[in-house]
Amino acid sequence: LYMGSLAEKQEELLSHVEPGEVTEYQTIQPGRYFMDLRPAGNPDEVLARIPNLMLRRNVLYTLYVIGNENQWKTILTVDGASYLPWPSEINR
Q1: Dihedrals φ, ψ of 38, to 5°?
Q2: d(CA 56, CA 64)
Q3: DSSP for 20-37, written as a single string
Q4: By the 8 A CB rule, do 62 and 79 touch?
Q5: Is the pLDDT of residue 30 over 90?
Q6: What gap in Å lies between CA 61 and CA 76, rounded to an integer?
Q7: What is the pLDDT, as a whole number, of residue 85?
Q8: pLDDT tens digits along 35-92
Q9: How far is CA 33 from CA 7, 18, 23, 87, 90, in A?
Q10: How far is CA 19 from CA 34, 37, 62, in A?
Q11: Distance CA 58, CA 56 (A)
Q12: Can you tell me the distance from the alpha carbon of 7 to that of 49, in angstroms, rounded to the nearest whole number?
């Protein structure tokens, strides 16, 4: 899994994740990102892309990757214990 603030400037975030494996949490600065799922051994091939991913401060997210070699789907969820402020609270 690669991630960066620009699609063309991504760095590896997680590597060698096996099917059915749960990985650790990572701390990421808030902001807008691109994420690419790439196969091991071929970092130039993009299996799935999440464009314009907005991550907020003090929010825990879980990214699910579902599929097989023919089709991939990514789902980003806000974890239940996270606090996502109402829009009126963001600029306080």
Answers
A1: -130, 145
A2: 18
A3: T---------SEEEEEEE
A4: yes
A5: yes
A6: 7
A7: 56
A8: 998 888 888 888 888 888 889 888 888 888 888 778 888 788 888 655 555 555 454 4
A9: 8, 24, 20, 20, 19
A10: 22, 13, 16
A11: 7
A12: 9
Q: What confidence score (pLDDT) does residue 16 get?
A: 76
Residue 73: both structure tokens together: 């789907």
- Label the pairing between strands 48-55 and 61-68: unpaired
**Backbone phi, psi, residue 41, to 5°:** 85, -5
Give backbone dihedrals phi and psi of 90, rounded to 5 degrees, phi first.
-65, -40
Tokens 């579902």 sit at which residue?
66
pLDDT at 92: 47
What is the reported pLDDT for 24? 72
- Position 33 scores a pLDDT of 93
CB 75 within 8 A of CB 40: no
The pTM (predicted TM-score) of the whole model is 0.70
Amino acid residing at 60: L
